[in-house]
């Protein structure tokens, strides 16, 4: 696929333009083109050959020309020119949370800093805070950002890796004599980031499995090859450990390699108290194996019901299981809709009709089309005039669609003083109002908390979007008094979002659980900007499950009728 490579060049152009201080709309145009090309389900090369590049939203004559150039030469004149003006290494600096294009430029011009290492040293030596226009707080923020980046080195977002893991399992199933097979480890627990892919398999012919495995086209390099365990690195960069185990201890191995380590240790201790040894080879009394074929046997051996993998973090699940008080977790197939999808009306890549069709394909009953409000000009925020056109498009879809209904919604910006970006009279027009913060992340905790509280107290707001603003590995959550927010949301009957976009997952698992315990309703939204990103819904469900949520805690389990009622009751 050339799509990724083309998108990357366009993204680099956007970053260099940004560092240069170019027009933000031009920057945004390149970013949007990159995003749209990545979202294509066809090869960009084919489109170019057929002369159809300009059918991609956001791509006009000029960009189409550049894309053709990139396809045939791997680069384009514009990119090469920019690289002569701005050192391309500076793009790396932008990956540090807290370093924007202006700062990157200043750091380079005044201190000659080009790499993250150089920047870290300069901060530690307080050379950065001595620059004009830089506060000592900024220096601290940059150091914190570098630390955040480092923490994530070697860990990848679940949303990037889960599809790969599932593809591997599918390929092995199809091409090798697989009997049982499961992805284990942090992926099975649906942790938000993962270090590697752990797969377990049983087979009559394990040697053949290993042979097929190492020759899969996804595999880049073989790290270690044995009869029962093989490790490879995928071309994507992540390590995969494949273990073939004896069917008689498959359940014990699955429990062991699912973890977490902390959870395993607790289970092993409970075993010891009962005179049992529990490990990846089975359940043993003395030297005799007394069980381990099924995972349930491991839990039963220590007098526990089977515990869902998403709960296995030693965060109270063992005590809850002992007390017969495990939550009845919300299931993936109980989800009836998605609250948060962007359409072509703002910065999304799909039309209202396409979103409806995709929802049908996913088995959903309803989708909230929530585009940005006018204040977010660079994200194509809607003016009152656009809103009427959008409403008409949604009504037209709903008139003909019996099974899938679209909700006429908005993601209204919470401005830096806590006001909303649309007046109440306009907000009242929408069936669904999500209010989110997109600016002013550097304000203090009291101010940021106040902004969210103000949104919660507006009776026209249904949901607060991506409440903490974090981006996994890129941006810390901004400081908030979540306890106060949860209690206000509960009182006002405002739901908090579990944003399911793979880099957000916001609220995260721990905060979701705290919200649920405070009696707050949760609303899962993919924040999809393309049809493909609507698939991330299951990541939001994973967060809900890791947050101990039951169906009644999650608004997405509502039927269209129930939801309409809830949305109305809220306002009147
Ligand atoms: P990751 O890979 O960092 O995303 O997280 P995990 O949980 O997949 O960790 P990994 O791949 O190192 O090991 C897989 C599972 O194997 C882990 O969840 C629990 C089990 N395990 C690994 N090391 C130990 C250990 O020293 N003691 C016990 N009891 N279990 C372990
Ligand atoms: Ca792992
Ligand atoms: Zn947003």
UniProtKB/TrEMBL annotation:
Its EC number is 2.7.7.7, 4.2.99.18. The gene is polX. It comes from Thermosulfuriphilus ammonigenes. This is DNA polymerase beta. Repair polymerase that plays a key role in base-excision repair. During this process, the damaged base is excised by specific DNA glycosylases, the DNA backbone is nicked at the abasic site by an apurinic/apyrimidic (AP) endonuclease, and POLB removes 5'-deoxyribose-phosphate from the preincised AP site acting as a 5'-deoxyribose-phosphate lyase (5'-dRP lyase); through its DNA polymerase activity, it adds one nucleotide to the 3' end of the arising single-nucleotide gap. InterPro entries: DNA-dir_DNA_pol_X, DNA_pol_lamdba_lyase_dom_sf, DNA_Pol_thumb_sf, DNA_pol_X_beta-like, HHH_MUS81, Hlx-hairpin-Hlx_DNA-bd_motif, NT_sf, PHP_dom. It is found in: Cytoplasm. Its cofactor is Mg(2+). GO terms for cellular component: cytosol. One of its GO terms (biological process) is DNA repair. Keywords: DNA damage, DNA repair, DNA replication, DNA synthesis, DNA-directed DNA polymerase, Exonuclease, Hydrolase, Methylation, Nuclease, Nucleotidyltransferase, Sodium, Transferase, Ubl conjugation. The keyword DNA repair applies. It holds the Pfam family HHH_8. GO terms for molecular function: class I DNA-(apurinic or apyrimidinic site) endonuclease activity; DNA binding; DNA-directed DNA polymerase activity; exonuclease activity; phosphoric ester hydrolase activity; zinc ion binding.
